[in-house]
Model the fold of this input.
Amino acid sequence: MQVVHTVSGLRQMLGQHHSVGFVPTMGFLHQGHASLIQQARAQHQTVVLSIFVNPTQFGPNEDFEKYPRNLEADIRIAEEAGADIIFAPSVREMYPEGFATNIDVQGAALPLEGEKRPGHFNGVATVVLKLLNIVGAEAAYFGEKDFQQVAVIRQLVRDFNHPTRIVSCPTVREPNGLAMSSRNSYFSPEQKQRADVIYRALMAARDAYQQGERRSEAILQAGRVVLEGEEALNLEYFTLVDAATLQHVEVIGDSDHRLLVAARLFNVRLIDNMGLV
Ligand code: PAF
Done:
């Protein structure tokens, strides 16, 4: 496996590769990332993984500086999972002197995370479009844990006629149900154990649906009862949306629906989501 830090170096390397699968990440890889690499490996001749902690998607009071980084461990995990090339550019390489164009995403980017983290999805869309242009892959693989992010990226490639196909892959969870995330490293072992509350709440809401409840408020209430049992948790939102539009629904109909949650637990911000069936 090769590690490359420049756009020109990556392009040179990819010159002769035809079927490229791409996994964009911010590093500090875990089993969730490994599953994306494995999925790409099964479909393409060459698998490129990017590692770039993108400053433009962090708000002024967010964790850009302390976001966990460990290139050595990432190289090992990426290689084991089957990546061929790691693209790990510097901030200067991605945003050189004079960089002056930003994507302003609307639509799927506006509710929920868009309200809680103003500017976040503009930063995500800008860097993802740059990465997709640089890599020129057939397909790019994203984790479903960031459900709204996937919707925003699908909208981005549709709106800009980008030829890369977007593939979303199921969330990988810890044995207690906590969705894998690089930010889970902020928890102590005891806190991480208690972070199963998010998964339990999503399951309780889903169970209410599966027992026949169709009113969104009642479904959400079943989950809220679980969340309220954890005193270290500050809920930001817990909602039931149409999976395509991300708009809140009152009564479950025929279309695809999704439970979405964001909360701070011991001051670590977590997001998660689940389908109803
Ligand atoms: O999901 C992430 O890790 C990031 O938001 C992404 C897609 C790599 C863009 O920086």
Summary: The mean pLDDT is 97. Residues 24-26, 54, 57, 124, 127-128, 146, 149 surround pantoate (CB under 6 Å).
